[in-house]
Amino acid sequence: MEALDIARWQFGITTVYHFIFVPLTIGLSLLVAIMQTVAVRSKDPVRKDAWTRLTKFFGSMLIVNFGIGIATGIVQEFQFGMNWSEYSVFVGDVFGAPLALEGLAAFFMESVFLGLWIFGWNKLPEKVHLATIWLVALGTTLSAYFILAANSFMQHPFGVMLNEQTGRAELDPSQGSIFSVLSNPTTLAAFPHVITGAWLLAGAFVTGVAAWHMAVHHRKAEALADGEEKALHTTLARDVYRPGVRFGVLVMVVAAIGLFISGDAQAKLMFQQQPMKMASAEALCETQSGAPFSILTVGGPDAFTTDCDGVTHLIEIPYVTSILATNDPKAELKGVDDLNAQYKEQFGETATDIYGAEHEVDYRPNLFVTYWSFRLMMGFAVFSGILAIWAFWITRGKGENARTSGSKAFQWFAVLSTPMPFLANSAGWVFTEIGRQPWVVHPNPLDPTVRLLTMQGVSNHPSWVVITSLVTFTLLYGVLAVVWFFLMRKSALKGVAVPVKDTSTGEVAPETISFGY
To answer: Which residues make Cβ contacts (< 8 Å) with residue 216, sequence separation at least 6?
Structure first.
């Protein structure tokens, strides 16, 4: 394999691995902040106690996830100097700015206030302590925005110009300042979609974990005769975990609405900015009016990579793709092959790599990966929808009629559904990045002067150097994955702190409510 292929594998592996933790941190920080707000504002001592326990329970998992996210995220910054130095030289004057803002403003902000939140329990005034977790949530959201601004520049260069003397991309003074890059229309479209995706993931996570414990305590309560222990399990199921389940369902519903609206807006924008990506997402090989949406498409043994030969659409919904693109069911959309011919005429049939070698350029991405990652992104999200409906139904009722459930089928479906939004988020990013190929900086259709092919952005390293770092990172990340899973599983199974009475005084010991790290 060439250094370019290995470098792409390394960046892909480290990025997808890191992004496992990112949406959970973004979403869970907000949800924990809301939980603590409910606890602080509650006048009912039972409700206040329940939401405080939920806050600390899910807060303990937020801490673990945040720590692993930091360890894996730092490596992402190094990638640009390690394997993509030519890319960094070309766009560093622009691309580095949002990354610096993410580090200086967002990352330090969330880290500092998370520390104050962890160690400030019963030390800071209640409302000041509450403000610290809200600042953590704000910091994670800002962090996402700045990273998306950097990525959106790669998808759609905006507010920049090409300096002919240096051959580098620079901020265009005629369009303003760095705020032009931060207000990239691609960023403004992607941000709500990514954030609502994080909310959906966090909502499903809270619902899944709380549902597991609700079912366990419901069954324990049913198995016991009347007494203190039965009352304890009933209270935990009904007054602690059931509100957690209902809260997670509410978040999933809000997130699903946001995802639908933002996804539609983003798709329409992508049909304008990156028509090749969207045509590949549908395996739309030929230009077509009233383009259908493909449910299932197959290809021959040598087809369905970048080649459209042998591609067969088995199940289609008429006109849907044209509606997604323009709201016009009869709109004409260009196919992959016609777009490839157009790009070859516009940008050239050949290009020179960093070694000075001339290569024929195919402007079509991998059809198979682009097509299926787009569908997996939506397909995995269906599990969250089923979980939300099921959880809402079995916990229906209010007051004394509030229901809990010990259903093992629901309990295990909640566990099965928990990782699905993680996979949906990862599939979405695979689609976003693979669909952009062969560009590392996709040309802006209105001003295509700032552009860079992937083969022109890689560092001039021998293959063995990149293989060494790839193997090292893969092994290290494998160890971190085991550590993360062990700590998250341990925290999740532990459940909320159970009140324990002092046998001599009969009072509940306050120190039993802790993070348990």
So the answer is: 406, 411
- Among candidates 183, 160, 155, which has minimal Cα distance to 171? 160
Q: Which residues pair with 293 in a beta bridge?
A: 317
What tokens does 119 get?
Answer: 């160690």
Neighbours of 73 (CB within 10 A): 21
Kindly state the DSSP code that residue 173 receives in the 8-state scheme: G
Can you tell me the distance from the alpha carbon of 88 to that of 46, in angstroms, rounded to the nearest whole number? Answer: 56
Closest CA to 499 of 49, 118, 123: 49
Judging by DSSP bridges, how do beta strands 350-352 and 358-360 pair with one another? antiparallel
**Cβ pair 497, 491 in contact under 8 A:** no
Angle at 260 between CA 255 and CA 263, to 5 degrees: 110
Find where tokens 């790009």 sit.
343
Give me 322's structure tokens.
Answer: 């044209």
Residue ranges of alpha helices (H) inside 42-125 are 45-82, 85-101, 108-119
CA distance 393 to 355: 62
Distance CA 123, CA 120 (A): 5
Whose structure tokens read 């997402």? 281
Contact call for residues 359 and 453 (beta carbons, < 8 A): no
Instruction: Say how many C-beta atoms besides its own lie within 10 A of residue 95's C-beta.
Output: 23
pLDDT tens digits along 67-102:
888 888 877 778 888 888 899 999 988 888 888 888
Owner of token pair 């890319």:
87
SS3 of 249, please? helix
d(CA 61, CA 67) in angstroms, rounded, equals 10
Tokens representing residue 302 in the block: 């040598």
For 389-427, how does the pLDDT look when each residue is reduced to its tens digit (9 = 90+)? 999 999 988 877 888 888 899 999 999 999 999 999 999
